[in-house]
């Protein structure tokens, strides 16, 4: 029997290995991953397509990570089912791995809606390294000139930038009326959209792709798309980047409670003893909404995996929670958006905004009872973490809220008691 | 580990710490060249904050459990287990700004030309960090503190 078995070797799985080793240096660890490379950064796959990074640069840990942590990585093996009574993970090669403690860190998979023609050569999803490698190879092999990206969220915008850097003409199709709608309000979205348009990208918002067309000389290869409003857009490639959904196949039909993702408590334990879940597959605590939800973000997966690993090894660590939080670097416009950055009308919320549209600068803080619950910074993200820390620690900012959006906002604005607490001053 | 500690009472907000930090991290190590001619422009990794009458200087705190390290997407930001220093590898950095989003001290500086972040490295190789050595009023001290 293996003491610790982890399914998935991305952010959460890797963080769990490190956390286990902080508590238990001896217990054996087996990490099962179907991927060919076990310790790369998924958020960097667009850098692989643009040519900014190779696989070596994408590795977020040294190659000796597994050795240093005395953990065995079963690379290229797929977990196909669980037996929670016998406590085994069944692999695709017939092996049964018995566990004492199990972590499900299987992550997410791309959501692909049904579209006519989606089986055509040249349609890609964009979630992992092999997706990126296939896409990069295809761009080269067919000398692709144009692409349609479906989805204007984080993934869609990241792959769009990579394709633009490769010289492709890109049209982004988004069902919502605004791009990056999960992160930005209409104003911020418009600023970012205008900048991306300047880079030559077209947007078709408020619609989706109803049909993927073939080429006249080869109907099996992508030649264009027809949008729901009827427009036809010729293209060599289609990238489906709508979002990810949890990879819950292993627990469907088992005693592990499943909502949209795997249900976990604040120790990252599922409803079945000795079985934990973390990362994009789990529904974890959002400290702004005060409830568990899907938050498929790399930095949160690391924190969650760490909590799971610590608890699996016998420490008692509670997950503090995360929230919807992203920083973007694309098209030269840095932006940060966290929490309820785009709330619905609500008289209990106070919204502070400062903008300098000539310089594409937009700053917004959302307060509830004088506590920051949301923020957006566009093209002016210096010291964003100071605001985030106030948000995360639920500090009442009543006395200095008029200073929060000052250009020189910083720690000096905070009360001395807080400065002392943070050991900024003696 | 030894850390740079600010004494707010002694800080006059003169900003020499920024000037000497910039110079120490320039190629030429020459104050005039660093400011006037060097390209890419060297960047101060310390920030003087003034909110009169309060002023102090702040740079990376080399946190024990550093949010920038746990949230780093590329593995560029690391905690050196031996020295305690939070190190940043420019070659691995992809300028995703996640660390800028999570640092409670606002201590990670965006190198907008280089599209990477930059930060205090405690002036490795110098007897004392340049900001400490050149503070005219001992408002910055380099001393052993509990991690």
Q: Looking at the chains present, what oligomeric state does this protein adopt?
A: heterodimer
Beta-strand residue fraction of chain A: 25-35%
Give the integer mean of the pLDDT values of chain B. Answer: 94
The shape of chain A is: globular
Low-pLDDT runs of chain A: none
User: Count the helices of chain A. How many?
Assistant: 10
Task: Sketch the topology of chain B as an H/E string, one letter per element.
Answer: EHHEEHEEHEEHE
N- and C-termini, Cα separation of chain B: 6 Å
Computed CA radius of gyration of chain A, to the nearest angstrom: 23 Å
**Distance between the first and last residues' Cα of chain A:** 52 Å
Question: Any low-confidence stretches of chain B, pLDDT <50, length ≥5?
Answer: none
Task: Give a short account of the largest sheet of chain A.
Answer: 7 strands, mixed
What's the pLDDT, averaged over the residues of chain A? 97
Can you tell me about this structure?
With 426 residues, chain A is α/β, with parallel strands linked by helices. Chain A is built from 10 helices and 25 strands. In chain A, the strands form 6 sheets. In chain A, strands 1, 2, 3, 4, 5, 6 and 18 form a 7-stranded mixed sheet that branches. The radius of gyration of chain A is 23 Å and the shape is globular. Chain A starts with a strand and ends in a 5-residue tail after the last helix. The mean pLDDT of chain A is 97. Chain B has 147 residues and is of the alpha+beta class. Chain B has 5 helices and 8 strands; from the N terminus they run βααββαββαββαβ. In chain B, strands 1-8 form a two-stranded antiparallel ribbon. A two-stranded antiparallel sheet of chain B has the order 2-3. The longest helix of chain B has 9 residues.
């Amino acid at each position: 029997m293996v003491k610790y078995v982890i399914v998935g070797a991305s952010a959460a799985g890797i963080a769990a290995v490190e956390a286990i080793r902080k508590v238990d240096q001896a217990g054996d660890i087996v990490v099962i991953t179907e991927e060919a490379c076990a310790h790369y950064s998924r958020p960097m796959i667009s850098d692989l397509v643009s040519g900014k990074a190779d696989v070596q640069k994408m590795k977020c840990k040294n190659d000796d990570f597994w050795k240093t942590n005395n953990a065995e990585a079963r690379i290229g093996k797929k977990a196909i089912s669980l037996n929670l009574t016998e406590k085994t993970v069944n692999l695709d090669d017939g092996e049964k791995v018995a566990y004492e403690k199990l972590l499900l860190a299987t992550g997410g998979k791309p959501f692909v809606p049904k579209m006519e023609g989606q089986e055509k050569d040249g349609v890609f999803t964009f979630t992992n390294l092999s997706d990126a490698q296939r896409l990069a190879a295809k761009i080269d092999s067919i000398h692709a000139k144009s692409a349609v990206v479906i989805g204007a969220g984080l993934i869609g915008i990241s792959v769009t930038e990579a394709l633009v850097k490769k010289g492709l003409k890109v049209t982004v199709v988004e069902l919502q009326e605004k791009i990056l709608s999960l992160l930005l309000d209409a104003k911020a979205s418009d600023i970012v959209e205008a900048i991306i348009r300047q880079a030559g990208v077209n947007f078709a918002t408020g619609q989706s792709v109803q049909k993927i067309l073939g080429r006249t000389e080869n109907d099996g290869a992508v030649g264009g798309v027809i949008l729901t409003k009827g427009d036809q857009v010729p293209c060599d490639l289609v990238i489906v980047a709508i979002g990810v959904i949890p990879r819950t196949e292993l627990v469907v039909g088992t005693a592990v409670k499943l909502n949209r993702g795997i249900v976990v408590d604040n120790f990252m334990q599922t409803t079945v003893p000795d079985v934990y879940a973390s990362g994009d597959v789990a529904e974890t605590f959002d400290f702004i909404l005060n409830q568990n939800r899907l938050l498929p973000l790399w930095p949160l997966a690391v924190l969650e995996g760490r909590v799971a690993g610590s608890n699996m090894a016998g420490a008692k660590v509670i997950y503090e929670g995360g929230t919807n939080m992203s920083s973007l670097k694309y098209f030269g416009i840095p932006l940060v958006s966290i929490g309820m950055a785009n709330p619905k009308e609500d008289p209990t919320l106070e919204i502070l905004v400062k903008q300098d549209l000539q310089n594409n600068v937009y700053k917004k803080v959302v307060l509830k009872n004088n506590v920051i619950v949301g923020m957006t910074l566009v093209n002016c993200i210096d010291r964003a973490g100071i605001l985030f820390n106030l948000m995360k620690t639920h500090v009442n900012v009543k006395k200095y809220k008029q200073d929060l959006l000052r250009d020189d906002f910083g720690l000096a604005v905070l009360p001395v008691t807080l400065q002392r607490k943070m050991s900024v001053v003696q | 580990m030894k850390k740079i500690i600010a004494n707010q009472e002694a800080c006059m907000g003169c900003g020499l710490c920024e000037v000497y930090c910039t110079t120490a991290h320039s190629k030429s190590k020459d104050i005039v060249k660093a400011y006037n001619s060097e390209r890419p422009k060297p960047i101060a990794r310390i920030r003087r904050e003034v909110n009169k009458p309060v002023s102090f200087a702040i740079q990376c705190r080399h946190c024990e459990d550093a949010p920038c390290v746990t949230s780093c997407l590329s593995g560029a930001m690391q905690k050196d287990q031996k020295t305690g220093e939070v190190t940043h590898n420019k070659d691995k950095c992809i300028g995703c700004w996640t660390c800028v989003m999570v640092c409670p001290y606002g201590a990670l500086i965006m190198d907008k030309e280089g599209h990477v972040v930059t930060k205090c490295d405690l002036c490795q190789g110098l007897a004392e960090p340049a900001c400490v050595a050149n503070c005219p009023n001992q408002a910055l001290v380099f001393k052993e503190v509990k991690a």
